[in-house]
Specification:
- The structure is a single chain.
- By secondary structure, this protein is mostly helical.
- Helix content is 51%, strand content 0%.
- Helix 1 (33-47) packs antiparallel against helix 2 and helix 2 packs antiparallel against helix 3.
- The termini are far apart.
Length: 92
């Protein structure tokens, strides 16, 4: 068995999800929502370049997918707080 990673893109989400969402003003998310989506997309692109079996990359993808989900829905106060904590912990 050989060591090392593969170049397999293991992100299983759709990259069109955020592009088809209504504008930030339409769902009351504020003007910086587009910036956050772009930051998450850029981070996903960076992490997808890492080895597919990297536990760091797998965890990061899960957290980024959670961020994408929270950005795409109308959030409760607790979900807003979770979103802020996730962004702060990821430093993106």
């Amino acid at each position: 068995m050989e060591g090392g990673g593969s170049n397999t893109n293991f992100y299983r989400g759709s990259t069109t999800t955020l592009a088809t969402n209504p504008s930030p003003a339409a769902n009351g998310a504020g003007a910086h929502k587009g910036d956050r989506e772009a930051a998450v997309d850029a981070e996903l692109a960076r992490v997808n370049k890492l080895p597919a079996h990297s536990s760091y990359a797998i965890h990061r993808i899960k957290v980024l997918n959670k961020l994408r989900h929270l950005l795409s829905i109308k959030r409760t106060t607790s979900q807003d707080e979770e979103l802020e904590l996730l962004f702060a912990s990821l430093s993106i």
